[in-house]
């Protein structure tokens, strides 16, 4: 999404309402565009200011399929995540590499916080609604996005 400064501010004011009651958020930047990485601090401040202190935030470096056009090193994303207490992954929306895993890892971290009692699952204001109970198999094979990661090669830095 391309936006001028005024458009970005308008978008940010709308998104602030979505933070309220959110249990998790994905903060995404484009590894081929340094300016998107440079705006992370501002977006993270917004998220933290307008959400619960327990909200899980996953930092995503997207477009890992464009390694040759990379403008932000993986180590920079990892360092930013470490410094701000975020979970970090690189993904490719184009190839689906790590996309499913990003959501699953965010959900796992939310679940861990539920088990620690940091979220009250009986209060939907926390952004969590309990659905029907199902058993979850942990012995599933590779997901479709993991298969796609292998398809683009191991030197992509994605998987």
Automatic annotation (TrEMBL):
Residues 135-149 have a biased composition (Polar residues). Residues 135-159 are annotated as: Disordered. Keywords: GTP-binding, Nucleotide-binding. Gene3D superfamilies: P-loop containing nucleotide triphosphate hydrolases. The keyword Transmembrane helix does not apply. SMART domains: RAB, RAS. The keyword NAD does not apply. Belongs to the small GTPase superfamily. Rab family. NCBIfam families: small_GTP (TIGR00231). This is Ras-related protein Rab-2B.
């Amino acid at each position: 999404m391309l936006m001028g400064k005024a458009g970005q501010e308008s978008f940010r004011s709308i998104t602030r309402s979505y933070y309220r009651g959110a249990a998790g958020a994905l903060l995404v930047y484009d590894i081929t565009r340094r300016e998107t990485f440079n705006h992370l601090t501002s977006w993270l401040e917004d998220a933290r200011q307008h959400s619960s202190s327990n909200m899980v935030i996953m930092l995503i470096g997207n477009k890992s399929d464009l390694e040759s056009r990379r403008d932000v090193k993986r180590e920079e994303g990892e360092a930013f995540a470490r410094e701000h207490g975020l979970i970090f992954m690189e993904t490719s929306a184009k190839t689906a590499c790590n996309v499913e895993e990003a959501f699953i890892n965010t959900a796992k971290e939310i679940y861990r916080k539920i088990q620690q009692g940091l979220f009250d699952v009986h209060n939907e204001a926390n952004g969590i609604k309990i659905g029907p109970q199902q058993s979850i198999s942990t012995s599933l094979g590779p997901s479709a996005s993991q298969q796609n990661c292998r398809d683009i090669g191991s030197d992509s830095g994605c998987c």
